[in-house]
Specification:
This protein is α/β, with parallel strands linked by helices. It has helices spanning 2-15, 30-43, 58-69, 89-96; strands spanning 21-23, 49-51, 77-79, 104-106, 113-114.
Length: 134
């Protein structure tokens, strides 16, 4: 796709009210493409899963996406493996702590990061109020 193509996709993503999954994996987005996606994530309210595995966004591009997610209220799963080296992912994960809807981030090749600040969108069943049935 490249940065120019992802710019068009990001424009649609920013305005979308229905798109729930976006798989951009294994395309050469680069840092510029990641910046377009990050800007779209700030306003998008429908995307639940984003896959940018192997997109050559490197650490600066992934940092931009993580910063965009600090303002996002819909995304639950981020796939971003094969973009950063062994150094630096902890700082990226700290950026995600502000997001309460993101459940998992797959940045390292190891187990997924689970957001300790995740707040479920599913409400608990209403409590029953009343007397005994017996």
């Amino acid at each position: 796709i490249g940065p120019a193509g992802v710019s068009r996709i990001a424009s649609g993503l920013a305005a979308s009210k229905a798109l729930q999954v976006l798989d951009l994996s294994n395309n050469e987005l680069g840092v510029a493409g990641a910046n377009h996606v990050a800007q779209a994530l700030v306003t998008n309210k429908s995307l639940v899963t984003l896959n940018v595995n192997g997109t050559q966004i490197r650490h600066p591009g992934l940092r931009s996406i993580c910063a965009g997610l600090a303002h996002n209220t819909a995304l639950e799963v981020l796939h971003a493996r094969s973009n950063v080296g062994a150094s630096g992912p902890e700082a990226l994960l700290r950026l995600l702590h502000a997001n309460t809807t993101l459940r998992f981030a797959y940045i390292l090749d190891s187990a997924p990061w689970r957001n300790p600040n995740y707040v479920s969108k599913v409400l608990p069943p209403p409590s029953r109020v009343g007397g005994n049935a017996g």
